[in-house]
Write a sequence for this structure.
């Protein structure tokens, strides 16, 4: 019996080959559809930010290529937002030396933008996202989830230091990280590194 096979464009094949031979920290993801594959640490860092962006529904690595004046270009990500918008993204060092990808994408009806190192690494968000994603593959047991959510609901908000004694079945920061990543609770990732004084609230759309 013969089978038809999907013929992958050479540029996409090459991008997969590069990415599958590299490993970047942290390894866990939450909203990545398919296999997490990154060609650079900067792209991996952008993936961390996508996982903690409350407007992101899902993201896919190395989704497709587009023809540019310099040849085919493979995007780092396709991001789907909660309003239904789909945008292709690339991580880049700076605006001084980027290929003319956005225009090439627009010609074929695609939305595209670059995120630059200054934005990706700016502030505390990336550092906090990396710490939280260490626990992406764990799960907070039901007893702990209900107990923590009930106390937060009654109090309105708590500091992380006040939540530590509420966990019985999982390490407290493991439980808090998983609940944040799965949008049960909310933390401020921008003002400072996560610590005992960080405020925990119920996640609100």
């Amino acid at each position: 019996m013969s089978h038809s096979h999907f013929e992958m464009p050479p540029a996409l094949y090459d991008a997969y080959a590069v990415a599958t031979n590299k490993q970047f920290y942290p390894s866990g993801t939450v909203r990545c559809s398919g296999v997490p594959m990154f060609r650079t640490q900067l792209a991996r860092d952008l993936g961390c930010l996508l996982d903690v962006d409350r407007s992101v529904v899902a993201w896919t690595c190395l989704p497709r290529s587009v023809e540019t004046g310099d040849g085919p270009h493979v995007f780092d990500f396709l991001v789907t937002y909660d309003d239904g918008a789909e945008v292709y993204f690339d991580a880049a060092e700076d605006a001084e030396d980027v290929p003319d990808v956005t225009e090439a994408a627009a010609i074929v009806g695609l939305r595209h933008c670059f995120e630059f190192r200054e934005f990706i690494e700016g502030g505390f968000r990336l550092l906090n996202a990396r710490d939280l994603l260490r626990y992406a593959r764990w799960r907070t047991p039901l007893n702990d989830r209900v107990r923590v959510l009930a106390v937060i609901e009654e109090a309105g908000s708590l500091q992380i230091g006040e939540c530590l004694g509420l966990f019985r079945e999982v390490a407290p920061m493991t439980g808090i990280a998983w609940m944040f990543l799965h949008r049960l609770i909310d933390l401020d990732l921008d003002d400072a590194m996560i610590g005992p004084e960080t405020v925990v609230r119920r996640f609100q759309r």
Summary: The first strand starts at residue 56 and ends at 61. The longest helix spans residues 142-155. The beta strands are 56-61, 65-68, 71-74, 77-81, 86-92, 112-116, 158-159, 185-186, 199-202.
